Amino acid sequence: MIYITRREVFAASHRLYNPDLPEEQNEAIYDKCANKNGHGHNYILEVVVAGEIDPVTGYVLDLKDLKRIIKDNVIKKVDHKHLNHDVDFMTGIIPTAENICVAIWHQIADKLPSGRLYSVKLYETENNYVEYRG
Ligand code: NI
User: Are 14 and 85 in contact (CB under 8 A)?
Assistant: First the structure.
């Protein structure tokens, strides 16, 4: 098994806020991330696909195809958008790095050959990232 990674970046804003909780509790949990009008991040996304090398092409998967799948299903929808308001696949989801990462997995998993998506990693800052493996 060999693993290939495609890296993309996008800029997006969000607000961490649970509408089911009172204001004070949101502030206690999310602190400045609950700022009413949101704040932004430069996110780094890494998508890892696993497979065996095709003896004819020498590829696991054509990286051009992986790039297109990520662009069409994720980057075009989130780049320069507000994750709480503008993104169909984030509707009703609190846009923590954890939740965004899982949502991105579901956006692309069924666009790839079955069982090939290995991991989705999302860096929200230089120091924090989350990784989902389905
Ligand atoms: Ni944030």
Answer: no
Residue 30: left if φ>0, alpha if ψ -120 to 50, beta else—which one?
alpha
Domains along the chain? 2-132 (3.30.479.10)
Per DSSP, the three-state class of 107 is helix
Cβ atoms < 10 Å from Cβ of 45: 21
Strand, coil or helix: 31:
helix
Three-state secondary-structure class, residue 34: helix
Known catalytic membership, residue 85: no
Place of tokens 């989130």: 78
- 124 flagged as catalytic: yes
Q: Give the distance (Å) from ligand 1 centre to CA of residue 91.
A: 17
Residues near 45 by Cβ (< 8 Å), separated by ≥ 6? 7, 8, 9, 10, 70, 74, 75, 104, 120, 121, 122, 123
pLDDT at 125: 94
Instruction: Quote the pLDDT of residue 56.
Output: 97
pTM summary value? 0.96
